[in-house]
Amino acid sequence: MLEALTTAALAAALSEEETDKRRRKMNETNEMYVSPILKSLIGKECMISHDQLDDERCTIKDVDADFIVLTVHGKKGDTTLIERIDGIEEIQLL
């Protein structure tokens, strides 16, 4: 049983390591890999569903391999947030 648990833990760690390697893949200029889809959304207004946000209208200010910078347009004014990309559920362009 201990061997099965060790094998499962090792498989989970390897899977996580592979995901991390793909995300941090370097290009020729030694910059971190950023999704071209997300990069193309910089400056655009959209609705984002996220762990912390429920369909909030916002503008994407910047994106890197792990984080997205958003200006959220709320009823009480604009707020700048830095959120993890992993938590994004959906993006709709306006």
Explain this structure.
The protein is α+β, with helices and mostly antiparallel strands and 94 residues long. It has two domains: 1-32; 34-94, SH3 type barrels, CATH 2.30.30.100. Helix content is 28%, strand content 38%. The chain contains two helices and five strands. The chain has helices at 2-23, 36-39; strands at residues 45-50, 56-63, 67-74, 77-84, 88-93. The chain has a five-stranded antiparallel sheet with strand order 4-3-2-1-5, with no helix packed on it. Strand 1 and strand 2 form a beta hairpin. The chain is globular, with a radius of gyration of 17 Å.
Task: Summarize the SSE layout with pairings.
Layout: H1 2-23, H2 36-39, E1 45-50, E2 56-63, E3 67-74, E4 77-84, E5 88-93
Antiparallel strand pairs: 1-2, 1-5, 2-3, 3-4
The oligomeric state is single chain
Main CATH class of the largest domain: Mainly Beta
Overall mean pLDDT stands at: 75
Broad structural category: alpha+beta
> Order of helices and strands, N to C?
HHEEEEE
Per CATH, what is the topology of the largest domain?
A: SH3 type barrels
CATH architecture of the largest domain: Roll
- What is the strand tally? 5
Adjacency order of strands in the biggest sheet = 4-3-2-1-5
Q: What count of domains describes the coordinates?
A: 2
Distance separating the two termini:
53 Å
- Measured by DSSP, the beta-strand proportion falls in 35-45%
Ranges with pLDDT <50 over ≥5 residues?
1-11
Task: Estimate the global geometry from the Cα principal axes.
Answer: globular
Helix coverage percent: 25-40%
Q: Measured on Cα atoms, how large is the radius of gyration?
A: 17 Å
Summed up, the helix count is 2
The largest β sheet comes out as:
5 strands, antiparallel
